[in-house]
Amino acid sequence: MAAFWNSFDSEISGCDCLGDSHLRQAPGDSIASVPYISVTMAAKKENSDDEVDEKVKKYLRGEAANLEGVKDKKLKGQLAVREDLYGKSAKTAAKIEKWLLPSEGGYLEAEGIEKTWRIKQESIAREVDILSSRNQYDIVLPELGPYTLDFTSNGRYMAAAGRKGHLAIVDMKTLNLIKEIQVRETVRDVAYLHNELFFAAAQKKYPYIYNREGTELHCLKEHGPVLRLQFLKNHFLLASINKFGQLRYQDVTMGEMIGNFRTGLGRTDVMQVNPFNGVVALGHSSGTVTMWKPTSSVPLVKMLCHPGPVSSLAFHPNGHLMATSGRENKIKIWDLRKFEVIQTLPCHAKTLNFSQKGLLAAGTGSFIQILADFSGSQNYSSYMTHSMAKGYQVGKVLFRPYEDILGIGHSMGWSSILIPGSGEPNFDSWVANPFETSKQRREKEVHSLLDKLPPETIMLDPTKVGTVRVPQKKEKPTKKDVEAEMEAAIETAKDTEFKKKTKGRNKPSKRAKKRREMIDKAKRPFLEQQTQEHETSRKKQKTNPETEMPKSLQRFVRQKAT
Amino acid sequence: MKVKVISRSTGEFTRERSQDLQRVFRNFDPTLRSQEKAVEYVRALNAAKLDKIFARPFIGAMDGHRDSIKCMAKNPNYLKAIFSGSDDGDIRLWDMASRRTVCQFPGHQGAVQGLTVSTDGSILVSCGSDCTVRLWNVSDANVADSDYLSDNSAKPQAVYVWKNAFRAVDHQWDGDLFATAGAQVDVWNHNRSQPVNTFDWGSDTTISIRFNPGEPNILATSANDRSITLYDLRMSSPARKVIMRTKTNSIAWNPMEPMNFTAANEDCNCYSYDARKLEEAKCVHKDHVSAVMDIDFSPTGREFVTGSYDRTVRIFQYNGGHSREIYHTKRMQRVFCVKYSCDASYVISGSDDTNLRLWKAKASEQLGVVLPRERKKHEYLEAVKNRYKHLPEVKRIVRHRHLPKPVYKAANLRRTMIEAERRKEQRRKAHSAPGSIMTEPVRKRRIIKEVE
C-alpha cells in the first residue's frame, strides 16, 4: 500500500496529465505543460481538465493573493512560493477526489415518461439491496405524542423524543434500541451534544442533560422552559430559546453561561444553527429572521422574510443558502451573502431540512416533498415526494448524515425513507466516522476539546480570521459635539476641590484666581484647535482667489515652491 | 428507473483482526469542515504555548577547567567530541554525551589563544601567548581508546617556537596548511618548524583568522586596526581589506554559501558581507547589548550562533536582522567562544566562569529518536504556528523571552539612544533644504573605506 502511495505521489507532483512521462517536470516548475500537448489528445483532455478545474476551484478556497502590489522582494518571493504550493495541493486534492474515494453517491433516474416525483418508496425498495431496504420503516407509537429526532454528527445514533415524555436512543446501524426512558414530563426538543454519550432534552420546566444510560447528569435551571435546543459543535455551546423569547448560550465543557439575551421579539420556536459560521438564526412571528452571536446582545442581522410568521428555517451546509417558509404557503431560498431571495417556491412547509448534498426536504401535514437543484445553479425543483397515512402529522424532517435516508418525526411515532443522492458517500474519519470504535471516540473527544473555538470566533464571515482589519475612517466631530465637550471640560474644572490652605494663604481672591486658571487650562486645547482650523481654512481661502485674479495681476500671484 | 442508494458494508470499513491497524478514510472536501481558519488559529495558539512549555534549552555544563575558556575547536569527523583551551594553558578533549573530560593536553606555559583541528581529524593545532605552536595527534583510535576515568594526558607531536605571541589559529580545509594570527599572519606546514609564508599588511596585531570552506586558499582575518582583510595564499600579497569603525572580534564563513562571511563586531552588531563586494554589508544583525566575542555558523548555513560580552548567547537567522533565540544563565559569565555542533542540534558556549555549556539549538526540540507520527505532528504545529505568528495573541507568546535585568535595561537604554539619534536626524533633514542631508544606509554606515 505504501509503495502504491509513493508512486502516485511522484506522478502527481510532476505534471498535470497523468501517464505522459515525457511531460514530467522538476518539482520547482509551475505546471506549464500546455505548449507540449499534442493535438490529438487535446479534445479528450479538455473534458477532464474542465472537471478537474471545477474541483480545484473548490479546494483553493477563494482567490489567489494579488502579489503585484508587494514591493518587498523577499516577501514577494516567499509568497509566490506559497501560492504555488497551494495550487499544487489543490490539484492533488482534486485528483484524489476523482480517483481515490471509496464510495460513489446515490442517484435516482427516471426512464422514459416516468417522473422522479411519482416514484414511490415501495418501488425503490424493490430495486435496492436488502440492507438498504431495511432502512425504510415506520415505528408507530401513537400514545406518546408527536416525536422529534436528532442524529449524532456521524449519523450512527438517533435520539427520539415524544412529547409525552418518551426518550429513546437507537443505534441506527443495527437498529438496536440502546436505552429508553420515560421522564413523565413534556419534552419539547432533544439535541445530541458532541458525541453519542450525551444528549439534552428540553423538558417542561428546564432542559436536562442525560447520559447514554439514561442517567440525568445536569439540570440546566437558568435556561427556563426551553422550546428549542441547538448544539454548536466547534464551540461546545448549547443554544436554547425559551418561552419568553430569551436566547441563552451555555458552554457544556465548563458549564459557563456565555450569553443571555432577550430577543425582544416574543415567543418563537423556530431556531437553527448555520453550520458554516456558527450563527444562530431565529424565525419570529412578525416574519423577521434574526441572526445572533454569543458576544453581542444585538442581533447581527434582522431580515424581513415573510408577510406572516416564519414557520420554519433551514441552512445549506455550505452556509450560503437559507430556506425559510411562511404561513402563506411559500418557501423562499435566500442567498446569505447578498441577503436576497434567489427563488420562491409555492410549497407549504411546516418543517424544512437541507441534506449534505443540498437536497431540501419540506414536510407538511402527512406529505413530504424533496426538492433538488440539478444543474447546480440553485434552481430548486421537485425531485421526490412521499405521502404517509392520513392521520400522521409531520413534526420534523431530518436527513441522516452520510446516508441516503430521511428521518421523519410525526404524531404517531417516527419513520425513515430512502432518498437516493442526499447523503455524502465518502466520510472523513477525522471529521465524523460512522464506524467509530470507543477508543476512536475517546481520542476524537480529546482532540475536539483541544480545538474548541472560543465564542468570539462566531462571525458572519468566518474567513475573516487572520486577515487585516481595515482601519475605520474617523468621522470629524461636529461643532455641537466640540462645544458640548468643551462645556463638559469646563464643568469638571469648576467642580475641582482645592486644598484648604492655612496661615493666611487661603484668601478668597487667591482662590477665585486659581479657579479661573483651572477653567482657562481646560479651555485651552479647544481654543488651540479652533485657531488651527481657522488658519487652515484661511490658507484654503487664500489659494482660491489666485485662480480668480484678472490677467494683468497674474504676475503678482505668489507661486508655490516647486 | 435507475436507482442507487449509499450502502456501506461494515467489513470494508472496519478492521478484520484486532492486530490490524484501524482504517482511516479521508475526504478533503472543504464543505465537510467548518470554520477552518478559526480552528487553525486555536491550534497555532496552543502550539505556541506548548512550545514555551517544552522550551528547556540548557542540557548541562562541562566543568573541569581552572581558568576562563578562550577557544574551542570541533573535530569534523567525530560528533561527540569538542576541544577547549583555557587561560592557564590547559587543553581538554570533552565527550559531550557524558559531559566529561576524555583527555588532557598539558604543555602550554601561558594562555591558549587558539585551537583548530585538521579536516581529516588527525592533528590538533594549538597556539598560545607563550609564542609556541603545538601539534597533537588526535586520530580516532587515540580518542576511542581513551578511558574516561583515568586522566589521560598526551604528549605533543611537535612544538614550534616563533618570534611573538599568537592570537588565533585556523586550519585549511582539505589541505595540510594552517595559519596563525599574531603580529603578522603566518602560514605553516605540519612538518616545517618555520612558517612557509608570511603576510603583513597594516601595522597592528591580527586577532582572528578563518579559512574559507569553499576555496581552500582564501582566508579572512581581522585586526586591531578595525579592519577585515582577505588573503589569497596563491598570491603572495593580500587581496582586499575593509576598515570599519570598530574592531571585529571574530569571523565565520557560511558553509553553504562560501562567498559570504559574518563578522562579530565590537559595536554589538554582526555584519554579514559578500566577499566579492565589501563596500556594503549584506545584512546587519542587531540584538546584543555588548561586544560580540565569537561567532559560528550552523552546518546548514541557515543560522549562526554568537556569544557576547553581555553574558548571553544568541542564535540568528543567516539573513535575519534580529535574533531568533537568546540563552543565558545566572552562572554563565562573559561568553568568549561559541561553537555550533556538526549535526546542527547543539550549541556549545565557553565562558569566563571556566565552564563549557551545552545548549539545544532549538529550545523545545524533542531529543532522541522521534517517531514518524511525532515528527509529522511537530512539523504541522510548526507550520500552523508560522502561519498565524503575526496575529497579536500568538505573536506575544512566540516573541516572549525572559532577559536578565542588566541586559533588559541596557537594551532599553540603547533603544532610546538610537531612537533619539534617529529623530534628531529626521528633524535636521526636515528643516534643511531637501537633498542636502543624505542618510547613509545602515549597511554602509559602519564602513569607513575599502582598500584594494
Automatic annotation (TrEMBL), chain A:
PROSITE patterns: WD_REPEATS_2, WD_REPEATS_REGION. Residues 382-462 form the BING4 C-terminal domain. It comes from the Eukaryota. Keywords: Nucleus, Repeat, WD repeat. WD repeats lie at residues 303-344. Residues 493-562 are annotated as: Disordered. The keyword Nucleus applies. Residues 517-549 have a biased composition (Basic and acidic residues). Its main location: nucleus. InterPro entries: BING4_C_dom (IPR012952), WD40/YVTN_repeat-like_dom_sf (IPR015943), WD40_repeat_dom_sf (IPR036322), WD40_rpt (IPR001680), WDR46/Utp7 (IPR040315). The keyword Nucleus applies. It is found in: Nucleus, Nucleolus. Residues 500-516 have a biased composition (Basic residues). PANTHER family: WD REPEAT-CONTAINING PROTEIN 46, WD-REPEAT PROTEIN BING4. This is BING4 C-terminal domain-containing protein. The lineage of its organism: Eukaryota, Viridiplantae, Streptophyta, Embryophyta, Tracheophyta.
Automatic annotation (TrEMBL), chain B:
It is found in: Nucleus, Nucleolus. The keyword Cell division does not apply. Keywords: Nucleus, Repeat, Ribonucleoprotein, WD repeat. Residues 361-447 form the Sof1-like protein domain. Pfam families: Sof1, WD40. SUPFAM superfamilies: WD40 repeat-like (SSF50978). Residues 422-441 are annotated as: Disordered. PROSITE patterns: WD_REPEATS_1, WD_REPEATS_2, WD_REPEATS_REGION. Belongs to the WD repeat DCAF13/WDSOF1 family. This is DDB1- and CUL4-associated factor 13. It comes from Hibiscus sabdariffa.
